[in-house]
Every structure is written in C-alpha cells, then in structure tokens.
Amino acid sequence: MNVPSVNNVLQQIVEQRRARLRQAMERQPLAMLERQVAAVPPPKDFKTAIHKTSGIQVIAEFKRASPSAGALRPGANPVQVAEAFLAGGAAAVSILTEEDFFHGSLEDLQSVRRQSPLPLLRKDFMVDPYQVYEARAWGADAVLLITSILSPTQLAELFQTAQGLGVTPLVEVHTAAELERALGLGAPVIGLNNRNLQDFSIDLTITTSLIGRVPREKVVVAESGFETPEQIQQLDASRITAVLVGEHLMRARDISTTLHALVQAGQRAHSSKGTSW
Predict the structure, then answer these.
(1) How many CB atoms lie within 10 A of CB 30?
(2) What is the pTM of this model?
(3) So where are the chain's domains?
(4) 222 beta partners
(5) Rounded CA gap, 62 and 245, in Å?
(6) What are the pLDDT digits (tens) for 95-130?
(7) CA–CA separation, 182 vs 187, rounded Å?
(8) What is the spatial distance between Cα 129 and Cα 207, in angstroms, rounded to a whole number?
C-alpha cells in the first residue's frame, strides 16, 4: 500500500482521484452514465433514515484500509459486513470507494446495494459532478462532499448536481470557516469531521466546538474517532443526529455485537431529541 507522508497525503489522494476520474470519463462518457442513472430505481431517503427522534443513529462504514491505519480487515466481504451492519441496527451504510489509498471500489458499493435495504452513502473524494452521476448509477443514495478540497464554485456545483439527482449531499466540514461555507450553501445535512485530513489526526472536540454554530433545524452527523458507547452516550442528542463509525467496526471481532452496543448508546444519549426540533 502506498503510504505518503502525512504532510501531503490529502494532496496526493486528490491528485490520484483526478487521474482516475479522467480514465473513467474516457471509458464511459457522461452521456452513457446518464442513461445508466435513468435506469436505476429511485434513491432511498438517506436524510430521513438517519433523522429520528429516538436518539442518535449510527451510520456504519465499510472501509477496507486507510493511509494512517493500513489494512483494517483483510479479505472483508462487503455484503457480509453490510449484513452485520443491518443486524447490529445501523440506520444507514457508508461505503468508501477510493481505490488507491483506501482500497475501495464502486463494485463494493454495487454489491451492497444489491443486498442491503439500508440507504447507502458513497464516501469518496468528490471533485467533479461526474462522480455524483457515478455514485447514483452504482446505487448510492447519498454522497460525501468534503468542503476542504473544493472551491465554493465546485462545492455548489456538486451540491446542486446531487440534489438534482435526488441524492442527499452530506457536506463535511472540519473548521468554523468551512461550516460557514456549508451553511451559506443551505446544506440540510452537515458532517462535523473530527479527523484533520491534512495529517489524519483525530480530535473529538471538533464536534463539540462546532455544534453550537449549527442551526437546530440541520441534520448533523458527527464523523470519525468514535469507538466506545460512552463517547456516543455523552453526545447531545438534541443537536447530533447521527455518528459515522468505520475503523472501529471494521476491526471488531464481532461487528454486529459491537455496532449494537453503539446503537444502544445512541438511544441513551443524554438529551431528548424529540423535544428540541
């Protein structure tokens, strides 16, 4: 596995993603992809699935590897893992599809779509509207838009493309400035990423420091670094809609049991969401 230095990992990921994108567009022009999108069933409602009054929901992530952690579950079968996610009580599933640094694929997304009834999020480094069409064609109901790698114009274009296809855009932020961009866009679903993508370090206080700046009508997903039921139970369920958990589940000996403990903790989170919206 190619592991670049932490100082330029994000830049290398985005550059490689752009190279892969050019190859994909040569193999399958957008017009062909649009026809494929027209033939797939309508997307599932990702936002509604994760936005419930019964505490904090869990979005479980299928993730083969990462630049910082290496391989997480060698030989993992995405369908079997997705079945464990369903059994453990996940509200939705995230599939990491980046090939070179995370060892994911669109085939992983497609195989889970064929078997799982849960809404699916394509998690990748999206830099072009083509990838949103690609996500929909291969079965995604939502896409991750990372504010830090997109200009305001690019972010708006990707956001509008997703909405036009009925795909939920999860707009991810890590700083107050990025959050202001997401709010200015009118994003209804916002991800607060505790992971710094410049060096892949984790700081769980990112969520707690930014949540007070998010209007209460927004659907908020806390991302990265959650490993224990206690961490989730301490979150404010009147402000946090869901948590996204990947590496902890992929390393677990028993995925469904580990996930169930996190789901139960979400139901016990210390504030009542039902009286706050």
Answers:
(1) 14
(2) 0.92
(3) 9-275
(4) 192, 243
(5) 9
(6) 999 999 999 999 999 999 999 999 999 999 999 999
(7) 6
(8) 28
- Residues written for the chain: 277
Strands (DSSP E) contained in the chain are 57-62, 65-66, 70-71, 92-96, 120-123, 142-146, 168-173, 189-193, 219-223, 242-245
Note whether 248 and 223 are within 8 A (CB). Answer: no
In this structure, the strands spanning 92-96 and 70-71 are unpaired
With tokens 């670049």, the residue in question is: 4
* Residue type present at position 115: Q
Percent of the chain topping pLDDT 70: 95
Nearest one of 210, 239, 242 to 226, comparing CA atoms: 242
Q: State the Cα–Cα distance between residues 1 and 229, nearest whole angstrom.
A: 32
Superfamily of domain 9-275 in the CATH hierarchy: Aldolase class I (3.20.20.70)
Question: Which has the closest alpha carbon to 229: 268, 194, 257, 261?
Answer: 261
Report CA-CA distances (Å) from 5 to 67, 197, 201, 203, 215. Answer: 9, 12, 13, 20, 37
**Two structure tokens written together for 115:** 């078997």
